[in-house]
Amino acid sequence: LLQVREVDGHKLIQIRNPWANEVEWNGPWSDSSSLWTDRMKHKLKHVPQSKDGIFWMSWQDFQIHFRSI
Questions:
Q1: Cα(44)–Cα(30) distance, rounded to whole angstroms?
Q2: Is residue 4 over pLDDT 70?
């Protein structure tokens, strides 16, 4: 877990795959998601880099896909 942020009403979590095997989230707020605006990229200093093992996801999706840390 790298960051937990709330920006413009969006609760987001930045995660890094510790195995660095290029497996990343591909849902909402993933690197290729249409939800990213220039404003959000700037506020979160997000530079999409596919297959780097680092990704953002919403708090709601995090709760669904991760039961424990």
A1: 13
A2: yes
SS3 22: coil
pLDDT at 21: 67
Tokens of residue 39, six digits:
């404003």
> Phi and psi for 30 in degrees, rounded to 5?
-70, 170
Residue 68 has pLDDT above 90, yes or no: no
Q: Which residues of 5-17 are buried (b: 16+ CB within 10 A; e: fewer)?
A: eeeeebebbbbee
Place 50 in a pLDDT band, splitting at 50, 70 and 90. Answer: low
CA distances from 21 to 16, 26, 56 (A): 10, 15, 16
